[in-house]
Design goal:
heterotrimer, A mainly alpha, B alpha+beta, C alpha/beta, A: mainly alpha, 14 helices, 72% helix, C: alpha/beta, eight-stranded mixed β-sheet, four-stranded antiparallel β-sheet, 12 strands
Chain lengths: 330, 585, 352
Amino acid sequence: MVAYLIRRVLGMILLLFLLSLTVFFLFNMLPGDPARLTCGKACSPQIIEANRHRLGLDEPPLTQYTKFITGIFAGRTFSPDSPQPIECPAPCLGYSFLRRETVGSLIARSAPVTFWLAVGAFLLWLLMGISLGIYAALHRGRWQDRLVMGVSLVGYSLPSFFFGLVLIFFVIIKMGWLPFPDYVSPFENPVQFFQTMILPWIVLAILYAAFYMRLTRNQVLEVLNDDYVRTARSKGLPERVVVVKHALRAGLTPIVTSAGLDLAGLLGGAIISENIFSLPGLGSLAVTSVINADLPVITGLTLLTAGLIIFMNLIVDLLYAVIDPRVRVA
Amino acid sequence: MVRSSPGLLRALTAGVAAALVLAACGTNTTSSGPSGGSGGTTGQGQPGGTIFILSQAEQWDQVDPQRAYTGEDLAFFGATIYRSLVAYKYSADPVEGTSLVPDLATDLGTHNDDATQWSFTLRDGATFQDGSPVTCEDVKYGTSRTFATDVINQGPTYQIAYLDIPTDKDGSSAYKGPYKKTGQDLYDKAVTCDGNTITFNLNKPVPDFNYTTTLGFSPVPKDADTGETYGDNPVSSGPYQIDSYETGNGGKMILVRNPNWNKDSDTYRKAYPDRWEVDFGIDPKVMDQRLMQSTGDDATAIQYGNVQPENLATIFTDPKTTAPQFAGRATSDYDPYSLYLWVNVQKVPNVKIRQAMAVALDRQALRLNAGGAFAGDLADGVIKPNIGQDYAPTGMWTDMFGQAVPDNGDPELAKKLIQDSGEAAPTVQYDYPQTPTNDKSAAIVKDSLEKAGFTVKPNPIEPGVYYSVVFDPKKAGEFGSGGWGADWPNASTVIPPLFTQKGGWDLSEVDDPDFNAQVEDAQTELDRAAQAKKWQDLNKLAMQNVYVIPTRFGLTQTIAGDKVQPTYQWPAYGSWPYAEMYVTQ
Amino acid sequence: MIPATATQERPFLTVNDLSVAFPTEDGLVRAVDGVSFTLEKGKTLAVVGESGSGKSVTAQAVMGLINRKAAHIGGEIWLDGQDLLAMTPAEVQDLRGNELAMIFQDPMSSLHPFYRIGDQIIEAIRVHRKISKAAARQETLDMLRHVGIPAVERRIDAYPHQLSGGMRQRVMIAMALINSPQLLIADEPTTALDVTVQAQILELIQRLQGEFGTTVILITHDLGIVADVADDVAVMYGGRIVEKASTGILYDQPEMPYTLGLLSSIPRMDRALTDRLDPIKGNPPSPINLPKGCVFQPRCKYWEMVPNGECKTVRPELLPSGPDHLVRCLLPTETRHQIARDVMQNLSGAVK
């Protein structure tokens, strides 16, 4: 098991390294000259050149990449000609001249917001999705099933920006039940934290729960026909135990896979919800950076998101082993 | 003005170069005027309270006084933390609102006979936030920072263009700024301090140089200058200072009073509220609803951005009139921009072909797609009426091409012009920053030009990199979407940047010696009225040559809460009149 | 007259006119239609038929495993004086795994792949009896040992995939018998196993039946394994019993053409390799569109011997044909006997 883990982690690092290389050179080939973009009015060739130097783009791409990688381990200094240059300590993922902040600090500032948003929504949607999915499965074909599936269809097709706006208008602006979203850390002000997060959690949870309702229902229905479920019934187990302990656990694998990848995706940023609710998370950071062609931030976020997905895949694989003894490594 | 501010999404997606200062004098016929005539300056200003600014943007474009260049940056920080030699008067009136008043200087500056030397005398008693006096040396130092182009970028560069400092072989200034100090003696000769009087020696006559000093001539104490990061911790010379600043979605900037601001030295700023709070990253739809509702803190909030199209009909009865329930707190007025399609004259050298393109274009459909009458008026040039005396109708659509051209284009006339050109109708690539609205615009461009026989290849470009692509001669197409706003009320900030190689925004790649000579002549004309005539003629000439196809003079709508006054669009920057605003009881 | 109590009069298990039908989008699936039989305590009944004949549904109806909301169930199932079909689902659930137990065809898929076998058996104990985990574990160990699993101390914590097929079926049997059921239903218990293991499992069931006095219903499609095990045999076809007799009679004097077909298709050690099996031609009828007459008629070689083509129009009844012998066939008794004799002779004629 330990050897397996080490192998996986080494593989992850190699993958990230290759990815960084790809991302770096891919972004280098994009149309548009960053030095021109952040130049200014009356942008003479001389000023563009000075700006290129300031951004470190006057060096060959390979040198730039080497500096990027070196920066991760040893830190870097930006804008060397400034009387007070910018120090970017290791692990340095780069510096956004646009935001005037290191990529690391931008991510460190945004990541907790997205983390809480994702985890809260995740727990909520798993709870809703799985319990309603089971409920629908147990009432297959009857009105309870149709109701849950109808709700799921609505939730699935409800654009989250629309749903989010409706919630803001009614709950905050019209009714005044909640103050305007203003993110604080849960450790700093738990009440305000919950007041800020509850609506985005609901919006995201309903969006995702819709899918998990269907998935769980279908999984449970499929597994309910399996032989070992019949065995469990023939033992005289109560239906609740049959469904939860025997059927659900067996049908859990695809749910865990989806949940892991959905969580990984969400941890990379929930763009629409973050923007509607003014949450300073990774999603809004990503959007702003793409709109402004802020390459250092985009590179950093791409690597982070990829790393998250790779990491989540590992977690999902480990969870498989916990769920299913057959895949455990001897 | 070249680059779009990160937050100015609207400007970006409209394909507009980020805006700047604007001027308006005289004939602002279309504009609704201050708050559609119903808003304005009811009651007397009183100190106290907090004014909130709700912003869709996630940060100010630039806080550094030498790097700030968008209208909102200049208007807000000029009202709160930076003083400059002279400033624009606060007034809703298009003429008054773009006229200069002294700020740090005792007057509007004096110049020698040929306007190659300008002097300003600083008034006594002005202080920085640490209590130290603002000296001539501080203005001189601040001005010098622009020359450090490898650190201080994105700001205005008129200092480099106008100050009498020789250039190196590669065309860059021999002075490399206060950090490297290369050529410091050259700068010290060009800008001199004599007691409280600062003198600028220019490399050519600049009759409107005092307007120039509103851009990047603010004082910076040398000891506090951290270079790249100065904007994070700038030293205030105005009535407020930065208490905290966090960028990003949900971020905030909070300004509190500067205890060392000497009110007696500053007749320009009223400094009514105790506090300013800028809330970043507010969803524009949410923002509109909050401001329309105007409850709690939102009652003293103002909008940084525009009313969303779907709310226009609620807030306004027409582009000139505010609906009764929002009277006195919504504005609909010219923004600083002229919108156009640039035509690359190197790639479309035949003027008849360019004229055919202009004549064929369905400008009415383009405006409808952008929002109809609320989006602005059909344009007849790049000089916008709110600039004042430099505007005169060009007659582009009435008689310039021998007959009137309807707003929806005239394919038959276009075909005739193509025939006259002696060439076949070419295939032309149309560049534009890709957004859903711009996709539709591109389809309109394609349809209307193809009716005249052109073949149009739309080329959508990622909005974030649009301008850096179209400024690359190898990548740019035959024509594309663009926009421009004047830096101050003189077309010297419109015609030269757009149509000369030195100007910096010459998307049309115009490089005509005769045109250049006329521009040079107009720039150095000391008689303002004569100068205005020259700009009018050059605007007309540029249209005759179809360097661009003008499409729209932009109009912008904004809204404020019901407990903040005065609410009008300040013509100088197309912004709220920040330094006059107060919270009502 | 003294009224007799039901328990005294009725045999241990009485299934009376059982019918099970599932409504589907294509129509009503009549899986079981009018099945009746009785079984004395301690005896073994083999129910034989092809897949789709209704034998497994019959077994599941007895076990109460058919969802009453998803099916129409008619008739009566009396077990030891109680009508299972009149009981609430909760009451039947109490009986399941306790009085009634079942083992299934594929021991791999019938054991939950994610739980240790010991835990699965302990769960079966503790759902019916309030005893400590330790005691349940001890009981499980004893039972596993009893069904012939070696090294039980180690195996009890194994997962199903770590055991061989035969071992798994022994585990299933241990689990079924752990609460000393009165009735054990074995649904194709050997089908998924190697031939050598099949015999061991059957022997085990028989041995345990003797020890515990369990009544057994053995469900199989293979008449070949029935002879040594069952006291009675019921042959099912198209949701009905078509022939029922004591084992000896059925093997010696089968009458129904379907039974004859089944007997002909038994692989036998004493048959020549060249002499291919003689399976019944055609497919079982669709349970939605059963033939109007005899459900076996479309596959029957002899139906034309019945006058007026009655096999196509008249549903035959299950009628006595001798002591302990019921047959559902329209052929005249004499003709039936004649055909049976020919077929049986043919079969034995193949013997070298």
